[in-house]
Write a structure and sequence with these properties.
The protein has helices spanning 2-80, 93-102, 114-159, 163-179, 185-194; strands spanning 85-86, 107-108. By secondary structure, the chain is mainly alpha-helical. α2 (93-102) links the parallel β1 (85-86) and β2. α3 packs antiparallel against α4 and α3 (114-159) packs parallel to α5. The chain starts with a helix and ends with a helix.
Length: 195
C-alpha cells in the first residue's frame, strides 16, 4: 500500500513537473512572440518615422524651390522698380546675402540683425549715389553738347547783317531745342544775341 502511494506520489510529481515545463515553454513562446511583436512595432515605428522625415524633407525641398522662385520673381520686380523688399524666411538667409552681393536690392529680414540692414542700406545708398553721379554726368554732357551747338550756330548770325538770313538762322537755331526739350534756358540766353 505504501509502495503504491509512493508510486502515485512520484507519478503526480512527474505530472506536475511536466505541466510546469509545458507552462514554462508556453510562457517562453508567448514572451518570444511578444518580443517579436514589440520588435515589429519598433521597426514599424522607425519606418513611419523615416517616412515622416522623408516627407518633411520633400516638403522642405519644395518650400526651398518655391522660395527660390519667389526670390527670382522678387529680383525681377526689384530690377524693374528699385525698391526695398521684405523677406521673412530664415532658411534663405545665406542665399539672400549672396543675392544682395550680386544685385543692388535690399533683402531685409525681420529676424535678421541690424548690421545686415545697415550694410544693405549703405550698399543701396552707394548705388543710388552712383546712379545720381551718372545722371549728373549725362546732364553735363548734354549741356556741353548744347553749348557747342550754340557756339557753332552763333557766328553765322553775327556775319549776316541783312534781316532775311537772321530770321532763317533763328529758325535754324531754335530747331535743336525742339528735339531737346530739357534745356529751355539756353533759348532765353541766346535770344538777345539773335536780336
Amino acid at each position: 500500500m505504501m509502495m503504491m502511494m509512493v508510486v502515485m506520489m512520484m507519478m503526480m510529481m512527474m505530472m506536475m513537473m511536466m505541466m510546469m515545463m509545458v507552462m514554462v515553454m508556453v510562457v517562453m513562446v508567448v514572451m518570444m512572440m511578444m518580443v517579436m511583436v514589440m520588435v515589429m512595432m519598433m521597426m514599424m515605428m522607425v519606418m513611419m518615422m523615416m517616412m515622416v522625415v522623408m516627407m518633411v524633407m520633400m516638403v522642405m525641398v519644395v518650400m526651398m524651390m518655391v522660395v527660390v522662385m519667389m526670390m527670382v520673381m522678387m529680383l525681377v520686380m526689384v530690377m524693374m522698380m528699385v525698391m526695398m523688399v521684405m523677406v521673412v524666411m530664415m532658411m534663405i538667409m545665406m542665399m539672400v546675402v549672396m543675392v544682395m552681393m550680386m544685385v543692388m536690392m535690399v533683402m531685409v529680414m525681420v529676424v535678421m540683425m541690424m548690421m545686415m540692414m545697415m550694410m544693405m542700406l549703405v550698399m543701396v545708398m552707394v548705388m543710388m549715389m552712383m546712379m545720381m553721379m551718372m545722371m549728373v554726368m549725362m546732364m553735363i554732357m548734354m549741356m556741353m553738347m548744347m553749348m557747342m551747338i550754340r557756339r557753332e550756330g552763333n557766328p553765322s548770325q553775327d556775319e549776316s547783317p541783312s534781316s532775311d538770313p537772321i530770321t532763317e538762322t533763328r529758325t535754324q537755331s531754335t530747331s535743336p531745342l525742339v528735339h531737346q526739350s530739357t534745356s529751355p534756358p539756353f533759348h532765353q540766353s541766346t535770344s538777345p544775341i539773335v536780336h
